[in-house]
Amino acid sequence: MSSVCVVDHPVAGNCLRILRDRRTETEGFRKEMKRLGWLLAIEATRDIEYAMDAVVTPLDVQVNCPRIKDDRILLVPILRAGLGFVDSFLDIFPAAKVAHVGVSRDHDTLEAITYLDTVPDNPAAFDRVFVVDPMLATGNSSVKTLEVITGKGYRPEQITLVCALAVNRGIEQVHGKFPAVKIVTAVIDPELNEKAYIVPGLGDAGDRLNLI
Question: How far is the C-alpha of 20 from the C-alpha of 29, rounded, in Å?
Fold first, then answer.
């Protein structure tokens, strides 16, 4: 997987169509965010580590199949919008652990401020870390979260940032400090507006997921 992967799939595009539409209400927005999260989770874990395990089929034939140790996966949603992808990952990796990083943004300076951190202090317990947040805009929140995670001993090479939409400014900000972190997104939009919202984007994902 290259350092940036865009999931170019018709189903992902259809999810984005519904998410972008201002007429989509909270229930539909949550449903499509979860559906898109499944596709992103599959792509983000394309290179996941696994062991081979022998099973016997109903035809009494033994066959070797991959076994994923999902209890060694750590999900880190950036609050609050990142919660929209957690269930998607847990549907596929039910034994994964979930930590939370809360980041608020100063709307004047766009500075990211951490207000919550539950990332475990035992990086040896995890093989992969997936940071999930629907929007990679300025990159400030993502960089702040990556600083929290790597500050506890996690290696950038084991971290993947998963988002629905990104812009080049955010990608460059992340890779400027963490070049080894992989980024998986459904689309790269052209720009940010004066309020640092992705354009054309889909509005404020946190507000649309939670209504308030």
Answer: 9
Q: Are 165 and 134 in contact (CB under 8 A)?
A: yes
Residue 26's φ and ψ, nearest 5 degrees, are -55, -50
Each residue of 108-146: pLDDT tens digit? 776 788 999 999 999 999 999 999 999 999 999 999 999
**Which is it for strands 182-189 and 4-6: parallel, antiparallel or unpaired?**
parallel
Taking a C-beta distance cutoff of 8 angstroms, is the pair 199, 150 a contact?
A: no
CATH 3.30.428.10 assigned to 4-49+67-210: no
pTM, two decimals, is 0.92
Q: Name the residue among 175, 169, 111 with its Cα closest to residue 135.
A: 169
Domain ranges across the chain: 4-49+67-210
Residues recognised as catalytic? 105, 109, 204, 207
* Euclidean distance between CA atoms 174 and 186, whole angstroms: 17
When pLDDT is averaged across residues 33-50 and rounded to a whole number, the result is: 95
Residue 49, classed as helix, strand or coil, is coil
